Amino acid sequence: MKYMMFVASSLTPDTESDESDIDLWVDPLDASGKRVMGEVLAPVSDSTVVRVRGGKVLATRGPFVETSEVVVGFDILEVEDLDEAIEIASRHPMARNGQIELRAFQPWDE
Fold it and tell me: By its UniProt entry, which InterPro entries does this protein fall under (predicted)?
């Protein structure tokens, strides 16, 4: 099963994870093929929200919604089941400093 793993952080986190912590999480998962890919995202202040209203495209720079937590990165996991995805996500440094959201990929025909 494939899972999208959203990595969220507070806009003002209490602690910052050490970059080497991320490497300790990423390297074995990449080597095992459990992590298909992952990236860090640009700051929410650089985001663009796109909506279509009344047939017009509205593109708004910057965050659209007031929130205290934002998605700062993602990973795509290829695992046996949700239990394995949870176990992998629980080892991510941001599980301690932010939160991780897991969502299974759903086939188009369902």
Answer: Dimeric_a/b-barrel (IPR011008), YCII (IPR005545)
Is residue 13 domain-resident? Answer: yes
Long-range CB contact pairs, 60-69, < 8 A, 24+: 67/11, 68/10, 68/11, 69/8, 69/9, 69/10, 69/11, 69/98, 69/99
Alpha helix ranges (H) inside the chain: 19-32, 82-90, 94-97
Per the structure, how many domains does the chain have?
Answer: 1
Q: Which two tokens stand for residue 27?
A: 């390297």
Question: Could you list the residue range(s) of the whole structural domain that residue 84 is in?
Answer: 2-104
pLDDT tens per residue, range 46-70: 888 888 999 999 888 876 666 677 8
Q: What is the pTM of this model?
A: 0.80
